[in-house]
Specification:
- With 166 residues, the protein is an alpha/beta fold.
- The chain contains 4 helices and 5 strands, in the order βαβαβββαα.
- A 5-stranded mixed beta sheet has the order 1-2-5-4-3.
């Protein structure tokens, strides 16, 4: 595949600030350098939005949460459910029905908000025990059911439009 089709950036790359959202996959094994911690904080506080996807189980959550705690120690993760506006931005989702495609876990959605205000600006969203990108990646070969794949696309579109408008 073409790698130039993607903007793969380190968190301390100044080009990141030209992008309103970042997508981090497999955050359960992710570690930031001190420079990336500073850049991540600046990015989020200047309006950036990070989507975390494709990480499972408690130890992976703990690692991702610890990395984010280094960047924004004053913020805490809040669970979000189908009532949150992010799930109704373009597509009006009726339920969160996109199971992890390969691991038997229950998806869990959480977010960080400025000032720890769940009605305020969301700066990060974590699809824990989920892997939306797996559905996107394999949608052309009919590996997964169409309705679930469509649901993954709808969630992704909602996330991106939400990030661009909030």
């Amino acid at each position: 595949g073409r790698t130039d089709a993607f903007n793969v950036l380190a968190l301390d790359d100044p080009e990141l600030f030209k992008n309103p959202f970042a997508y981090i996959t497999e955050a359960g094994w992710w570690t930031m350098t001190d420079r990336e911690v500073e850049a991540c904080r600046a990015y989020l506080l200047k309006g950036g939005f990070i989507i975390f996807d494709d990480f499972e189980h408690q130890p992976e959550w703990d690692n991702m949460a610890e990395q984010m705690r280094r960047a924004v120690p004053e913020l805490q993760w809040f669970p979000i459910d189908i009532r949150h506006p992010v799930f109704h931005t373009v597509f009006d989702l009726k339920r969160l029905d996109v199971p992890h495609p390969t691991v038997d876990v229950v998806p869990d959605y959480r977010a960080l908000f400025l000032d720890n205000d769940p009605n305020g600006r969301m700066v990060a969203l974590a699809n824990h025990n989920a892997d939306l990108a797996e559905y996107w990646e394999w949608s052309a070969d009919e590996r997964f059911p169409v309705d679930v794949t469509s649901g993954a696309y709808e969630m992704g579109v909602n996330y991106l439009v939400y990030a661009m408008t909030h």
